[in-house]
Amino acid sequence: MLQSMTGFGSAEAESSKYRIKIEIKTLNSKFLDFSTKLPREILDRELEIKSIITNHLKRGKVNLTIELIPLGLEEPNIHINKGLFRTYYKQYEELANEMAANPKDLFRLALHSPDVIVADESSSFEDWELLKSTLETALAKCNAFRAAEGETLQRNLESYIDGIAAGLVEVTARDPERIKLIRERITNSIEDIREKTQIDQNRFEQELIYYIEKLDITEEKVRLGRHLEYFKEVMGAKESQGKKLGFISQEIGREINTIGAKANDAVIQRAVVQMKDELEKIKEQSMNII
């Protein structure tokens, strides 16, 4: 079954010291890319966190946010560099006076300047197993979201494939009449020429057959029908295969374009335009499939 690359999952848990909040958002991407926002307490676990994500998610741009909210009234494990704070504040104040700017937010600006607030590196995060299980819960929810989105994508793609199949039926029904009209058009043109010059009848028949064969779309119709069947087969496979669907859609487009180039018929050209419209929808949707 298909899976979308668009997903969302969140989970929370509490230990004696922290409330853990995890949020995962995924978007489409050719590969599995990471963007993580982690608290200082678990920065040393970043590679392990990415390994867990890799085991659960395939393809997509992953945005992960983890928050650790301290519980209780115990003193936070941080150090404020007061000397550095004063230096920042003084320089910001001088610059504000020079530029005649409002000094209202200088305290906040200086407090959040680099290295003013430093966490105590000696403190270690003791709730890793709880955080890991919470992360896996969020990942499971994200995958469930992707599966639900995938079902919607599959219904849409089946509708678009059916639209192309309907166009192929129209082309197939029109083809004999198209060939007949081409023969008549060529024959009438030759009759006009025949009055003015002598024509080798055998050579004329050979040239006519050659021209008709160049306009023949039998093979393209057969291949297009097979591609449509294969597309549905891949959609129904156990694992989502977005890249393969993209390749098949390229082959579908190649056959539709060839039919349009050979058609030389207004009715078939209209059907080709409709099939191309459905194919563009397929390509757009396929980009978001894992």
Describe the protein's architecture and organization.
With 290 residues, the protein is an alpha+beta fold. The chain has 3 domains: 7-74 and 127-147, Ribosomal Protein S5, domain 2 (2-Layer Sandwich); 78-117, no CATH class; 148-286, Four Helix Bundle (Hemerythrin (Met), subunit A). It is built from 8 helices and 6 strands, in the order βββαββααβααααα. The protein has helices at 46-56, 82-98, 106-111, 128-194, 201-214, 218-235, 242-263, 266-286, and strands at 7-14, 18-27, 32-37, 60-70, 78-80, 117-119. The chain has a 4-stranded mixed β-sheet with strand order 1-2-4-3. A two-stranded antiparallel sheet has the order 5-6. Helix 1 (46-56) links the parallel strand 3 and strand 4. The longest helix is centred in the middle third of the chain and has 67 residues, at 128-194. The protein is elongated, with a radius of gyration of 33 Å. The N and C termini lie close together (10 Å).
